[in-house]
Amino acid sequence: MIRLFKYESYKVTISEEAILLKPFKAIWNRDRTKSKDRALDELGFIYFFCDPRSDYQYLTDETERKKAIKEGEGLPEKWEPDKLVLDAMDFYNSFKPTSALLLEDTRYAVDKLRKLLKDIDLEDKDDKGKPIYTLNTITATIKQIPSLVKDLDEAEKTLTSEMMQKGRMRGQGEKTIFEDDLNA
């Protein structure tokens, strides 16, 4: 994954290469103000929503993630991503490595499991009057959670490490967009 955006010192910085890419350039150019506040807000939203390194990636429900980003980053409550922003998001997502996609899928599955455990009703019975959820099933599932959490945490650390290594070259300089193929 190339590093188009970085989050440092509580702000998103955009690489020079990113502004050269058509979807991001369109967002940048439509903001005719000198400060480029709207463009920076929208590009920041793209980073926070799409980038695997974003602090908002723990929110697997996209509606919840969008709402949290808007609140957390100070975007207007009524603001919604328009076609330009959505196109840029699709473009940005196309750079995600397979490991990032697998991590997203794993987070989604873990979130579903969490919701399932939360919604278990020990009083539920099947049509024959037997409990749907047995104590053995529930305890077996609960016993697997520590290793699941550990594995997810390890996967996140591995992805972060992988992205840092791919984004670096000899001399600790940052790679530019054309130094790797775009599907890296």
Question: Would you kindly provide a written description of the structure presented here, covering whatever features stand out?
Answer:
By secondary structure, the chain is mainly α. It folds into two domains: 96 residues, no CATH class; 75 residues. It is 57% helix and 4% strand. The protein has seven helices and two strands; from the N terminus they run ββααααααα. It has a two-stranded antiparallel sheet. β1 and β2 form a beta hairpin. α6 runs antiparallel to α7. The longest helix is centred in the C-terminal third of the chain and has 32 residues. It is elongated, with a radius of gyration of 21 Å. The protein starts with a strand and ends in an 18-residue tail after the last helix. The C terminus is likely disordered.
List the helices and strands and how they pair.
Elements: E1 5-8, E2 11-14, H1 16-20, H2 22-30, H3 37-50, H4 62-73, H5 83-93, H6 98-119, H7 135-166
Antiparallel strand pairs: 1-2
Helix pairs in contact: 2-3, 2-5, 3-4, 3-5, 6-7
Total domains: 2
User: What is the mean predicted local confidence, pLDDT?
Assistant: 81
Radius of gyration using CA atoms only:
21 Å
Q: Report, as a whole number of angstroms, the end-to-end distance.
A: 6 Å
pLDDT < 50 runs, ≥5 residues: 180-184
Globular, elongated, flat, extended or rod-shaped: what is the shape? Answer: elongated
Structural class by helix and strand composition: mainly alpha
Helix content estimate? 55-70%
| Secondary-structure element pattern, one letter each | EEHHHHHHH
